[in-house]
Design a protein that fits this description.
This protein is mainly α. The chain has seven helices and two strands. A two-stranded antiparallel sheet has the order 1-2.
């Protein structure tokens, strides 16, 4: 009673006949390379750019200059002296002391050695003038002497006060300058250290780039077996979907289904025939 109704379809997909030798050759060469030196060769060439001769010379000179001006040597020693001197060097502190004395001193008309000379000349001139007029030792002579010497003293005091005011302003400015010099001197002392650290950073950068390049080469060597296998599989897949494909279509395989199918077919024919009548 049972039966089988199968449909089998077979299709063949082959490369172009003239291309077959090329495919065979390519696959064979790929396999030879895979078994030999490898399809993929790791790049072990260094890609680190070394320092040029000029850069190396510059780094050496900069390092030497920094060493000569660090600690108590060279520029650092002078700047440390400025810091120890409150922001001023020895000559500036000497000048500052004179300014301070003028700014804080009291008026003393005899403190100026030049004043006595002016005083003597003024007195002699008044005496000569009074004697020439025949009024020496007169009241007029005394009045003129008092007026001239008084004016001389007043001018001397005004000059002292002007110099004192100027000295006080200079003293204030010197204090401001000293404060600024302290920071500048400290920054100047750090300059050789910064230069030396800059040279160190350049060396560290080169060393870091060298290590990264060595890591890259090591990774390429480690990945070479897998890369070769992947390259071989890619070459194999490059042959395309060539070969033979078989497809089967499974039909009804029991008697009842076959009879039912035949009956439906007959009914369909009968219906169509009746329509024609």
């Amino acid at each position: 009673m049972g039966g089988s109704n199968k449909q089998t379809t077979t299709s063949t997909n082959a490369p172009y006949k003239a291309a077959q030798p090329l495919l065979d050759k390519g696959m064979g060469d790929a396999l030879d390379l895979y078994n030999g030196p490898g399809l993929v060769q790791p790049n072990t060439m260094s890609t680190v750019v070394p320092f040029s001769q000029q850069t190396t010379q510059g780094m050496g000179a900069l390092q030497g200059l920094a060493g000569q001006n660090m600690g108590s040597n060279g520029l650092s020693g002078q700047l440390q002296g400025i810091i120890n001197g409150g922001g001023l060097n020895a000559d500036q502190n000497t000048a500052l002391e004179g300014i301070r004395n003028t700014a804080t001193g009291s008026f003393d008309i005899n403190a100026d050695p030049g004043f006595q000379q002016v005083f003597d000349k003024t007195r002699d001139a008044v005496n000569q003038n009074a004697a020439g007029l025949g009024r020496y030792a007169s009241g007029t002579h005394d009045g003129v002497m008092t007026r001239e010497l008084g004016d001389l003293g007043a001018r001397q005091f005004q000059d002292f006060q002007s110099r004192k005011d100027a000295a006080q302003q200079q003293l204030f400015n010197a204090g401001q300058t000293a404060q600024g010099n302290l920071g500048s001197a400290y920054d100047g002392m750090k300059a050789p250290i910064s230069d030396l650290m800059g040279v160190g950073s350049m060396n560290e950068d080169l060393y870091g780039r060298t290590l990264n390049d060595q890591l890259r080469i090591a990774q390429e060597r480690q990945n070479a077996p897998l890369a070769n296998l992947q390259a071989l599989m890619a070459a194999a897949n490059g042959s395309g979907s060539y070969g033979t494909t078989t497809q089967q279509a499974q039909g009804p395989n029991n008697t009842f289904s076959n009879i039912a199918g035949a009956g439906l077919g007959a009914a369909s024919l009968g219906t169509n025939g009746g329509a024609k009548l």
